[in-house]
Specification:
Distance between the termini: 37 Å
Strand content: under 5%
Radius of gyration: 26 Å
InterPro entries: NAA25_NatB_aux_su
Family: Belongs to the MDM20/NAA25 family.
Pfam families: NatB_MDM20
Number of strands: 2
Length: about 450
């Protein structure tokens, strides 16, 4: 759901969940006080411990982090509104504090995985979106190892996501201060400590991805120039794209990424090449959506609404600093040559972002232009053709069950009724309807970004 373009629905789900949890915490406090008044001290301890477990719930912490990130994604086309969201989050500092707390307390997980059958997937597996790897018997030790790996992955994910608001804030601060000779209208100047903090957070982000800062920078340049295989990024593609965007923003002020320009180019060029390459590669690899309903659309949505969105915010900050306005004034003796070069890089980046978004928009329009009947036939034919693999195998099993003269009543009333009412044509129509809803929402997101970036292009 967090990778869905249905932002209003995602927001409602997250808010309702947090409201439910907050109400439960208040009720828990009342029950604790009531138990204390009745001198039921064992119940007091039980309520307090249960509340602490809920407060350290990995799912609860993730929801608290994702709500503001979702708000930031929705406001990323307007830098002033985006800055307003960041200000309400104390510029992302409160989530850094949350990350520090995670290091001192043990997270709790909402299910006892040891009690689940050995063949069921852990919560980081989604067989509706990911390929089914088959079932192999797990010994007790193997299952324990899988659980530990899954829980460690959740902790890393929470840490990465909690760094995002602060990384975005520091990136736009560095980008705003990249124009030589500009100060704020109130006379304030950029604090170099913010650039140093961004460098430290980038190092921390790279460490979470399993690399040192220097190795991560080197890998980014090597992959963009084709010296290394891009498979190294396949598991953490969105995180690597975020890293590259924030790296460019930091380098705009620090200029510490000293690479041979003849071999590698600037960090602006790095961001442009990598974002365009991976977004368009994702579009080409998906092909027609009706032939693979559980495709990589969520990954494409994340590429557009996170790394590309943060990059657009960086571009907006640079453009705002380059343009004369009442908010900024010139200092004496600016380095005009540096500003001219920056303006050219910003214009090149705007052009690259526009081209990328327009190609994605064309693909979306192409998918939506097909008739529902054609899509339905394509879905059903692909399921019948791939009858021994994945969804096709499930389709064949259900079809066999429903085509028999008598459905086994031993399956239970609920399953029996579902099998009796099951219709392949009805299922395909529901898939197409939900797909069209997702595509139309994603198209609106792309259109709004294109409009925003073209507005900057006209100003420059």
């Amino acid at each position: 759901m967090l990778a869905s373009p249905l932002w209003p629905d995602s927001t409602d789900i997250l808010r309702d969940y947090l409201r439910f949890m907050d109400d439960h915490f208040r009720e828990s406090a009342d029950l604790t006080f009531l138990a204390y008044r009745h001198r039921s001290y064992s119940k007091v301890i039980e309520f307090v411990q249960f509340k602490e477990r809920l407060q350290q719930s990995s799912q609860y912490l993730m929801a608290k982090i994702e709500i503001p990130i979702l708000q930031l994604k929705q406001k990323a086309n307007n830098i002033e509104e985006g800055e307003g969201i960041l200000d309400s989050l104390k510029q992302g500092v409160q989530f850094l504090e949350l990350t520090d707390e995670i290091g001192t307390k043990s997270l709790t997980f909402n299910e006892e995985l040891q009690l689940r059958p050995w063949w069921t997937p852990t919560y980081d597996k989604n067989y509706l979106l990911e390929p089914f790897e088959g079932v192999a018997y797990c010994t007790g030790q193997t299952l324990d190892d899988q659980i530990k790996q899954s829980q460690a992955k959740v902790v890393k994910t929470i840490e990465k996501r909690s760094l995002l608001p602060r990384l975005v804030f520091l990136s736009i601060q560095c980008a705003s201060s990249s124009v030589k000779g500009n100060v704020e209208a109130n006379g304030s100047v950029f604090d170099p400590k913010l650039s140093s903090e961004l460098r430290l957070l980038l190092e921390r982000y790279a460490n979470i991805l399993g690399f040192s800062f220097q190795d991560a920078v080197g890998m980014a340049f090597d992959i963009s120039s084709g010296l290394k295989d891009a498979e190294a990024w396949s598991c953490n593609l969105i995180d690597w794209m975020n890293f590259v965007v924030f790296l460019n923003a930091w380098n705009l002020y620090s200029h510490e990424v000293d690479r041979d320009s003849n071999k590698h180019g600037s960090t602006w060029l790095l961001v442009n090449l990598i974002l365009k390459k991976y977004i368009l590669d994702k579009v080409r690899s998906m092909g027609a959506l009706e032939s693979s309903p559980g495709c990589d659309l969520p990954h494409l949505v994340l590429l557009i609404t996170e790394p590309l969105a943060w990059h657009i915010m960086v571009i907006q900050c640079c453009a705002r600093s380059l343009l004369p306005s009442g908010k900024r004034k010139k200092k004496g003796g600016p380095s005009e040559q540096c500003n001219i070069e920056l303006c050219q890089e910003v214009q090149d980046s705007i052009r690259c972002v526009c081209e990328t978004l327009e190609l994605v928009r064309d693909w979306l329009n192409q998918q939506m232009s097909k008739s529902d009947n054609d899509k339905s036939e394509s879905i059903l034919s692909s399921l019948k053709r791939d009858g021994e693999l994945g969804p096709g195998k499930v389709y064949r099993v259900i079809e066999t069950l429903t085509s028999s003269s008598t459905i086994d009543r031993g399956l239970g009333d609920v399953i029996t009724r579902a099998l009796q009412s099951w219709s392949p044509a009805d299922i395909s129509r529901k898939i197409i309807t939900s797909q069209r809803t997702a595509l139309s929402n994603f198209l609106r997101i792309c259109d709004s970004k294109i409009k925003s970036v073209k507005g900057l292009k006209a100003q420059l």
